Amino acid sequence: MGSCFSTTTKSTSEIAPFDLVVKPPPTTAAPTPAKTPASSAATVRLYGPSNSLVTSYLRFALLHKGVSLRFIPSEDQKPTIQLGSETVTGSQEILIRYIEEKFPEPRLMIWKFNLEGFDEATPLIVKMIWLQHRSMLWHIERMVRWSEDLAARGGKRAVDPSVGTPKMEIRKFAKSYTMLQDVMVEHAQMEERILFPVLESVDRGMCKSANEEHGRELPKMNGIKEDIKSIGVLDSGCCSEALYSLASRFISFKVMCKAHFEEEEKELLPMVEAAEMGKEKHKKLLNQSLQVMRETHSRTFDFLLEGLTPQEAMQYLDLLMKFGDQDLISSFLSSNIVVD
Ligand SMILES: [Fe+2]
Questions:
Q1: 93, 116, 108, 144: which is closest to 322 by C-alpha?
Q2: pTM to 2 decimals?
Q3: Which residues fall inside 5 Å of ion ligand 1, going by CB?
């Protein structure tokens, strides 16, 4: 998965290698899209502003198609796709249709949410929370694998030279964990401030167990953070035991979070739909949630999207583009503008 807005080296390099950045081609009017499907081996060039939701949406659509993609950041607000001799510029809809015609498989299924058990009536906040759970779980599982790998190497240098020295690797690990913790804390705050009060107002006591679990997660997360800090100050090569203990803490944290997310998804989220609020109320809840999760949707937005499949990431971006308050979304994007 890849980057959308921030300057974090890892995720950006996966999707938009800046060593491959070239000048955008001269813009031409959108040709009539050719009906012939293109080979997925063909390289697609996508030009557009790197801090735009539409550009991100197109990037994830192309990633979903499994094409070879070169993203070239450009000042032009209208994104452009270049495939062979064809250059298409236009609205998100035009470009999505072009992508779908050129690369029919796998289908985007963008016209409605197709997540497990979801349909058009599923409340927006439920879709958002469900997708956030997917991303957080993916990141927790990644940290488990990474900590196990670190422990197995006994703090010795990784095979991949780009990881750097063991000290550098621990710093990267700590940075990744901090982002995960920030997202998880904001997610829990959003549920406690926005979701739980709505559910409690229709049936008091409904969120008691989920609330208590949030209370147990925080000390666990802080404990892991302390462990990582103390490993960071140890000399490399002599912290095998500490690394094994960190890996086992991550495993038990994963088990705890997985069970907690499942409980919320089975016991609480269906109740939002059952509470029979109108569409406007659902939109309001979504925007209130976004307000609480400001950092996640600006500074750590790349990180959040990185934990989703391209299809899921597009659905998340779709939620923001269709139902997010424009001023709010703009304030998220402007806080991510890269200044050289
Ligand atoms: Fe949750």
A1: 93
A2: 0.77
A3: 264
